[in-house]
Amino acid sequence: MGVDVTVDKLKPLPGDTPSNAAALDKYERDFQSHGQVWGEILQKNFERLSAGSYSLQWMNGEANGWGSQKPKISSRGLTYNDINRVKGSGEIDEVVSWKSFAPRGSIREPYKNMMPVLENYDVLHKYDVWSDNVMPLYEEAVARQWSATRDIPWDDVNGLPEDLAKASCQLSTFLTEVEFAAGDFPAKWLYRIPQDFLEVKSFMATQIMDEARHQEVFRKRALMGGGLMHATPGFEWALKSILDAPNHVMGTFLLNLLGEGLVLSIFRSGEMIAKTHADKEIFRLCMQDEARHVSYGVLQFKYFLDNHPNRAQAEEELHRFADLGEQIIMTAFSEATVNEPVAILLGGGLKNIDKGMEGLGKLWTVFIEEYLQRCDRAGFDRRARCTIPMQLPWGGSVAA
Amino acid sequence: MAIVKNEASATATPQMADPGPVTFPSQAWFEALVAVMRDNVARYKQLGYADCVMQFTVTDGDAGKPWSIRLTFDTYDVTGITLASATREDISDFAFEAPLCVWKAVIENTAKNHGRPDHEFTLNYLSMREPQFTVAAEDQLRRDYLFRYKQTMQQLINDSHHLKTEFRQ
Ligand SMILES: [Fe+2]
Ligand SMILES: [Fe+2]
Prior knowledge:
- The complex is a heterodimer of chains A (400) and B (169).
- Chain A is mostly helical and 400 residues long.
- Chain A has helices at residues 21-33, 35-50, 80-83, 134-143, 162-179, 181-190, 198-225, 233-243, 248-273, 277-307, 311-333, 336-347, 353-378.
- Chain B contains 6 helices and 7 strands.
- Chain B has helices at 27-39, 41-47, 100-112, 123-129, 140-148, 150-158, and strands at residues 21-24, 52-62, 65-74, 77-83, 94-98, 134-136, 164-167.
- In chain B, the strands form 2 sheets. Chain B has a 5-stranded mixed β-sheet. In chain B, strands 1-7 form a two-stranded parallel sheet.
- Residues 182, 211, 260, 290, 293 of chain A line the site of one fe (ii) ion (FE2).
């Protein structure tokens, strides 16, 4: 063979330590491929700085009427609504063409050719993300934040009998499991929504924060009450289905309108069946956050339908998606790790689980009616097509 | 129910002049309640602002006929307290509707517990479990306002313990 190979000249086998070399290679190549624009920016600025001169070109604000208008401060402070009354700041295009970070309303046109294009910004139609309540909902979210560390009287959760303690911990484990999916969904889409929809992105950021806190508070509740209990495969599939939704509007329907609508109902039930003040407080605080997410979902859905160029087609596709979405949610809620702890808490103990299941059956009918009413409000009539039964399919509840 | 504890109000005691006994239901009672709210504004600011129009209806509060009042919430304040028609069309965002005996039980329980009602007397509990207590709204989106501002609404009711309430017979 003629190749001089000896053991001492062999390269070491690849180790277990993951290497970032390939990713770094690509990053360097990408940088080099835009070398010209990097070079132009640096050269122009370097020459000016070397010459000891100033540009001050940025002081010319004529192009957007700098100084000609000032927002009026409202009773609660300076809101998005207030600043959006300033001409040039509040107008939002029906289809966004800016795929960079340049702020809406800034003087950005002269620099367009020097800017990168972020191809990940691909949700460009306003009807795909907007809702008429998104600005007040953002302001409300900021104003109504709370702390799971500070605002819950944690020493109050102890002292429950074992069946109620376990039911509370199982319910908390289930809620911990679902909460962060409701954060991952807006996080996934946030990255694809361009900066011109800044109000929507701001609201989505509050939803991510809210869901982080919900995950936190239920995790703390479970651990304070004895410990985390069982995970729920049915919900794992449902949560994955939400993240995999074909587009933002369909995902928003499944998460915000249907899924979180039912979670809001669970929070209301949670407050009702709570045996401790701490639990009451947890559910009321979470309820407030969840109701904002649901309200965004309802009016986003409405905005989409009202503004879509082909409403009939859009509606039919959404019905097709809802046929599946309802089955996804129904399957998830059939899990024992969800409905049995609720029934035990409703009944007041394991020995009253049948009574609790009857109570859950009555609540279920109310919950589904509320879901259908939210669809009505969005202009989406699901009554004839709804695939979720109005009554729970297990014994006791129907006759109750 | 296995263990029923009291509702905590997390409220600093407002420093207010004793307005003397006020009759429920009446406009004066709700004005006195809003005065307590204003004295307790730090708590309402902590809860965050609320913007909605809420109606209280006592279904038999006017000599057996419905009696109704409308409260306009704006930021951390109630900027309007007006007598309203109890008809459903007149509801702005949502309305609590219950007979005097239910309201009396709520107010008395809240007072007895110094602003910390027993668990069966929270607004949410009543709206889900008490057949005579309903939350009426034109549509679900407006009913959802109640859930968005639940802590503020509960705080308002909790603050009623600062009033000396007499009940219209
Ligand atoms: Fe949540
Ligand atoms: Fe949520």
